[in-house]
Design a protein that fits this description.
Structural class: mainly alpha
Keywords: Antibiotic resistance, Cell membrane, Membrane, Transmembrane, Transmembrane helix, Transport
Number of helices: 10
Protein name: Transport permease protein
Membrane topology: Multi-pass membrane protein
Helix content: 55-70%
Number of domains: 1
Shape: globular
Family: Belongs to the ABC-2 integral membrane protein family.
Order of helices and strands: HHEEHHHHHHHH
Largest sheet: 2 strands, antiparallel
Distance between the termini: 71 Å
GO molecular function, one term: ABC-type transporter activity
Length: 283
């Protein structure tokens, strides 16, 4: 009698196979965070700017305990009133402005071209950028809120509902800013001109979106223009969190989500169609 022995083999991954998209994205995010924190000038600007601006406005407008009267007729300290704008500004700096400039510089220096020639998937690269933005924004906001509460007497929310609002506005605003930053990075003609192109746009949006001035005191045409852009609604969403109930924070959550979501979708479409891995003069 002949006995037949069947040998089962266990499939093995090909030698040199890359990990999945999630591990690669997490690894890339860690790499991007290390690169960011090595740029000390950028770190100081991103973390210090919102705190410094809050200190300036609180000192200039809040002398002798002065308060601001909101649309709802409530009297609140200037630091409390301007905090939502500083939170929104911080998110915009670490997402839209940071990515629009840094990616343009990477492209101009040939880094994106070299990266495209490696086995690293494009999804892992972009996931790394978004992960870096989330990490920086979380730390940035933590620093801002601690300083606001300890140095300027700002009252932070005490309800789970308010913090839940903060979380979804923060996540949606960060995602929107990141995607739009990636898409806009193709606009500057070179890395050297990126800052000159991006920074003025960010400054103008801050002036017309209720960051530096009470939104209801701006001209009606300026309010209408600002309402098209996401920063105005990011400020609106954060106002619903940090400005006490009944003080004029309208809490238009539906409109906030709609506008931020629309810009997120538009940024994805434009980014997919226009993103370039090479310089304009490199084919």
């Amino acid at each position: 009698m002949t006995t037949t022995t069947t040998t089962r083999t266990t499939p093995t991954a090909p030698v040199g196979a890359l990990p999945g998209p999630l591990p690669l994205g997490l690894t890339r995010a860690g790499y991007e965070l290390r690169l960011f924190f090595r740029e000390r000038d950028a770190v100081v600007f991103v973390f210090a700017y919102p705190v410094i601006m809050l200190a300036i406005f609180a000192a200039v407008f809040g002398q002798d305990g002065a308060t601001v009267t909101t649309q709802g007729g409530a009297e609140i300290p200037f630091a409390q009133y301007f905090l939502p704008g500083m939170v929104a500004t911080g998110i915009m700096l670490s997402s839209f402005q940071s990515l629009a400039i840094s990616i343009a510089v990477e492209r101009d220096e040939g880094g994106l071209k070299r990266l495209r020639g490696t086995p690293l998937p494009a999804t892992a690269y972009f996931a790394g950028k978004v992960g870096q933005v989330l990490g920086v924004s979380l730390l940035q906001n933590a620093v801002l809120l601690v300083v606001a509460a300890s140095a300027f007497g700002v009252t932070l929310p005490t309800t789970a509902t308010a913090w839940a609002t903060f979380v979804w506005v923060f996540v949606l605003g960060t995602a929107c800013g990141s995607v739009c930053g990636v898409a806009f990075s193709s606009v500057p003609r070179s890395g050297r001109s990126a800052s000159a192109v991006v920074t003025p746009i960010v400054l103008v949006l801050q002036f017309i979106s209720g960051v530096f001035f009470p939104f209801d005191q701006l001209p009606s045409w300026m309010q209408g223009l600002a309402s098209v852009f996401p920063l105005r609604w990011l400020v609106e969403g954060m106002s619903a969190v940090f400005v006490p109930t009944g003080s004029g924070a309208s809490g238009q959550h539906g409109t906030t989500a709609l506008v931020l979501g629309a810009w997120l979708a538009a940024g994805l479409v434009v980014g997919v169609r226009t993103f370039r891995w090479r310089r304009r003069d490199d084919g």
